[in-house]
Amino acid sequence: MKKLVNQRVLSLVFSLILMIGVGILAQSCKNMKGKKDATAVEDKAASWYSAYTWSEGFHLVPDESTNKQEFDKLYKANPEWWDKAFAWLKNTDLDTIKPGVHLIVDGDVRAIVSEAPAPELENVKWEFHKDFSDIQYIVKGKAQMGVAPISEAMVTEPYDSAKDVGFGTVEGTYYTAKPGTFFIFTPADIHRPGIKVDGYDTVKKVVVKVRANSQE
Question: Are the C-beta atoms of 125 and 192 separated by less than 8 Å?
Fold first, then answer.
């Protein structure tokens, strides 16, 4: 009788171990599939981005900091807004255009042109947006652009929906912005734009705001 009980216990333990092993294997396969799917999405976005068909003939160089997967998602959700933005950049004489706000698509796409002294690093905050993405281009001069994933940032000033801006702090990466290279900042990014570079006092900059979220 005791032997029979021991056999039943051993059988139960073996079944339990087998169930745990099958569960671990299933979860491992699920994780591998998830990683494979994520890689496929990333590769597809990178391929689309590299084809450069989205630029509407605006043949300048997008900076390497661009979040390709996020840009791919936002562009394909509203291609007409992005097409209008890039077409405006292509067809506008950016060297002579006057500072101010230039409407491209009412409520959804607008350009803000500025020509002023670039601020020092300590005077530029890390900022983020939710309703609009930025295309930022330095027409004249040079400036530093900081960028990091918004997921890595600590919010220091809550998001203001009326102004579509919030502020935070993060250890980001800095890039030199100059004529010929443009930056794309999406709501997935936090950025620190237009920081003074020694030797370049006045900077002419174009920021095209492209709606990222549909209006309610």
Answer: yes
Higher pLDDT, 202 or 58: 202
161, 160, 157, 164: which is closest to 126 by C-alpha?
A: 157
Task: Give the pLDDT of residue 25.
Answer: 60
- Strand pairing report for 100-105 and 109-117: antiparallel
CA 183 to chain centre: 10
Pick the CATH number of 57-211 from 1.10.287.470, 2.60.120.370, 2.60.40.10, 1.20.1250.20: 2.60.120.370
Closest CA to 82 of 53, 112, 118: 53
pTM for this prediction: 0.79
pLDDT of the residue at 56 = 80
Beta-bridge partner residues of 209:
110, 134
- Which structure tokens are listed for 6? 């021991």
Nearest to 77 by CA among 186, 198, 195: 186
* DSSP state letter for 216: -
> In this structure, what token pair is assigned to residue 172?
């980001």
The per-residue pLDDT for 55 is: 81
